[in-house]
Amino acid sequence: MMFFRPEVYQLRLKFRAVQALTLAVTVSLSSQAPAATSALINVQEQPDTVTAKAFNSFAAPYQIDYQRLSENQEMLQIALDNPDTQIEIKRQGNKLLVRLKGVTASSAHGSMPVLGQKLTGLLQRIEAEQRGKDTWLIFTVSKDFEYQSYQLDNLIKIQIQPVRAIQQNTVTPKIYSGKPISVDFQQVEVRSVLHLLSQFTDTNIVATDQVTGSLMLNLVNVPWDQALDIILTSQQLGKQIQGNVILVAPLAQMAKQRAQQLAIEQQSQALMPLRSEYIRLNYAKAADLQALIIKASGSPTPTPVAMQHLPASTAVANAPSALPAVVTRLNLPVSSRLLSSRGVIAVDARTNTLIIKDTADSLSNIHALIKQIDIPVRQVMIEVRMVSATDNFSKEMGVKWGLLSKGVAHNDDLLVGASDQTLADLKSFSAPNTAYKGRNKSRAGYAITRPDNLNVDLGISNPAGRIAFGLLSMSDLMIDLELSAMQAEGRGEVISTPKILTLDKQTATVSSGTKIPYQSESEGGGTTTQFEEALLSLQVTPSITPEDKISLQLNIENGRPNPVGNGVILIDTDRLSTRVTVGDGQTLVLGGIYRNQIFNNTQKVPFFGDLPYIGRLFKQDLRRNDQQELLIFVTPKLMQLP
């Protein structure tokens, strides 16, 4: 850890009827901590505000108020019993030291004040030490920090925040940009302080005769322009910047001067001659701009007209309370009227022309407004690409076989067939007697052609290939066997690319698809034909940022007919709704959907289908794997203005 020696430069100036003034500019901070025993000052922690008092049975020499302004800002306020108490504030490592000169916190019992317990925010601990006749308040901070402090009369305010938070705040425009200074004034006249600030900052400051009074001021590491504002606020003074000169006067005097100036302007405006001008507009609608000018003039307004091609006037038409922001963006004072009390404005819709009669100043303001409003609105081309890829694979294997016999095992009464109808045919079938092994037997001719003569019917419906076997034996036995198999593979890719061109901040829609008819019941009991749309649609609202990036509000829908049989058609829909920001001409993947469906189906005869090897004759297998992937891309492009 590195420490720096403090180097203090003092500038002593004397003014009439005032004691010598001391201006202390702290260049670096002390690294040496005075050796002394410390007593913990306890602070009762509360969510936002903590108040701690050093007290005894007779008097309270100071009071500490702790307030958490935000996550990265905390405020300490020390109220002194004696406003003439001199203070010294410096930083030592991760501690902030406040010295109260001539302040003792001893009570009648000789004990140190007890204020509360340990804190948990940026400020972690408060301690007090008695060093001789002075009281030192020691504030322990949890991380590297910066601080600003100032004193008004008996109130000391110290704002603490992390260094990182200060660096982040520099991204936004600074309110105070003056050089940080540290000052210590004890009961000095306000005019003398203003004179000292003028010399130190090389700034021209003029104070009127009504600027009087005195104050005690102690500021540490505060920008000089902020110090000036603090001084003016404490004395109810105001300032007016005219070029490189700052005029300081009481607020009441400045308000009176403004009222007088306004009255003079109104009187001079009533005497100014009127001029007539015809202003033909190129891009804006004259009627919409007329409504905007009337609103900005504070006159009774007609029914607002939404100017869809002009974002500024849209804000005015839809939200009259937003008018000051619009006028400010156009660099026109909110208090100024575009039309004077004698001004008249009319519209020629056929030629899109404004007809205005008013003073030269009012016409100049109107021309400034038109120059910024009557411009072409930028356009955006949005291209969306939807890629749908499919990969399907299926494999089926099946078997059919049947057994037919009469006179099995030389028993004419034992018949074997695939169904009861087959057995009935066998019983009624006759054939000539044939001698077989010394016996006369009626041998079947097997002329049965029934298609249901199957003991196992597990063939596939649409086979790609099949083979059949037949076995006819002298023992009155016939076996039919058919094996079938099918394997199918399919790959496909569908690319849909809707495009649309639209204006900045304007919603546009493009769609393409088909209408699917379906039957529905009517109230009279009949049927009516209605239609359902299966659309590929794109709805988009672009917004161009100041950095020429494009913010898109997208709603994309892709509907596809899916017939399922019996005249029923389903609609498969993919839908995406999102808001993204894309660079000009860049392609962004908005999202995707991946589906993988796996089917394994087996049909078999119980027990026999589980037998090894021969179980293949008693079952049918189906294997199927369907993969589908959908990706959605968007590419916006800024179109060049003509």
Automatic annotation (TrEMBL):
Top-level taxon in the UniProt lineage: Bacteria
GO cellular component, one term: cell outer membrane
Compartment(s) where it occurs, according to its Swiss-Prot or TrEMBL record: Cell outer membrane
Record keyword Signal present: yes
InterPro entries named among the record's database cross-references: AMIN_dom (IPR021731), GspD/PilQ (IPR001775), NolW-like (IPR005644), NolW-like_sf (IPR038591), Pilus_4_PilQ (IPR013355), Secretin/TonB_short_N (IPR011662), T2SS/T3SS_dom (IPR004846), T2SS_GspD_CS (IPR004845)
Domain annotation Secretin/TonB short N-terminal: ranges: 203-251
Keywords annotated in UniProt: Cell outer membrane, Membrane, Protein transport, Signal, Transport
Short name of any one Pfam family annotated for the protein: Secretin_N
An example Gene Ontology biological process: protein secretion
Main location as per UniProt: membrane
Signal peptide positions on this chain: 1-35
Family: Belongs to the bacterial secretin family. PilQ subfamily.
Protein name: Type IV pilus secretin PilQ
